[in-house]
Automatic annotation (TrEMBL):
ABC transmembrane type-1 domain: residues covered: 84-291
Annotated PANTHER family: ABC TRANSPORTER PERMEASE PROTEIN MG189-RELATED-RELATED (PTHR43744), POLYGALACTURONAN_RHAMNOGALACTURONAN TRANSPORT SYSTEM PERMEASE PROTEIN YTCP (PTHR43744:SF9)
Similarity remark: Belongs to the binding-protein-dependent transport system permease family.
Membrane topology type: Multi-pass membrane protein
Residues annotated as transmembrane: 20-45, 84-107, 119-139, 151-172, 193-218, 274-291
Major subcellular location class: membrane
Name of the molecule in the record: Carbohydrate ABC transporter permease
Keywords: Cell membrane, Membrane, Transmembrane, Transmembrane helix, Transport
One family name in Pfam for this protein: BPD_transp_1
Length: 306
């Protein structure tokens, strides 16, 4: 009798668990759909004609498809391609440079035998709460470091993030000290141990921070607006900001006033903005599949061990 009651209880619990999982799956599907639908709408509007948008508004089912927005922007000359090249260079170099600095700094702070660890940790945490502000940063970068109108002005100010250092420091602390001590016994130096032992064991955490850093560099538009005086050195995000706020770039891309007037009259507005958004977002979306495995693993391991 008792076994029968236990079986009925277990069956009821399983039924409730299945229903609860079903509800969770539906909620997760709705949340994923809410994230994906805006991206799909942006792409659909970008390939819709300006006339259909004017008549019917934004719609998932356009009445007339057109690639005129993309053709229009690629007619502007080499500016978009040049801005893409600058952004790709800044993203790759900045991400690598930032990871090198962040991983070395975090590893040093993760070592309990480093006597200045508390001092540098305090300095790092202090910068998260207080900073000099925009004007002093601008003066240091332009007058002291002389980075004005230089591509390095897009890289160096974002090369070190205190939050990422804390995340990697916590990740490095999860590596057993016995492994590091065994490497020392085998004659490995500090840098060799860091490169050959610590970094391979920390791939998920490094890939996660690398993805965040790469997205930050790719999406940054403010530094380009702040430090770049020459429009030819604009990254793609700053160029997008410039295009959306004025038609001044057309004047610089046009041969004469007549060409400018014709381009301004035929310039796509709604579909053009969406086309620019697609051009900017598409490359970074293509990078996610290569980092997804490490990204999920890094979050899982960090949540369990951190």
């Amino acid at each position: 009798m008792r076994k029968k009651e236990e079986a009925m209880y277990e069956s009821a619990v399983n039924n409730i668990s299945k229903r609860f999982n079903g509800v969770l799956n539906i909620l997760m599907f709705c949340m994923a759909l809410a994230c994906v639908l805006p991206v799909i709408l942006v792409f659909i509007v970008s390939v819709s004609s300006e006339q259909s948008i004017f008549q019917n508004g934004y719609s998932f089912f356009p009445t007339e498809l057109s690639l005129e927005a993309y053709r229009f922007f690629f007619k502007l000359g080499d500016q978009i391609i040049r801005s893409y090249g600058i952004t790709i260079f800044v993203t790759i170099v900045g991400t690598v440079f930032s990871l090198v600095i962040t991983t070395m700094f975090a590893y040093v702070l993760s070592r309990s035998d480093y006597k200045y660890g508390k001092v540098f940790t305090f300095i790092m945490l202090f910068t998260m709460l207080f900073n000099g502000g925009l004007v002093p940063s601008y003066m240091v970068n332009t007058q002291v470091l002389n980075l004005g109108n230089s591509v390095w002005a897009l890289i160096l100010p974002m090369s070190l993030n205190a939050f990422y250092v804390i995340v990697l420091r916590t990740f490095f602390k999860s590596i057993p000290m016995e492994i590091i001590e065994a490497a020392k016994i085998d004659g490995s130096g500090e840098f060799s141990t860091f490169v050959k032992i610590v970094l391979p064991l920390s791939k998920p955490g490094i890939a996660t921070i690398g993805l965040f850093t790469m997205i930050a560099y790719w999406n940054d538009w403010f530094l380009g607006m702040l430090y770049m005086m020459d429009q030819e050195k604009y990254p793609i995000q700053t160029l997008l900001w410039s295009m959306q706020n004025s038609l001044e770039f057309m004047k610089q891309s046009s041969v004469n006033a007549l060409e400018y007037a014709e381009m301004a009259q035929n310039a796509p507005t709604d579909s053009g903005r969406m086309a620019l958004t697609v051009l900017v977002v598409a490359p970074i979306l293509l990078a996610y599949p290569f980092f997804q495995k490490y990204f999920v693993k890094g979050l899982t391991v960090g949540g369990v061990k951190g």
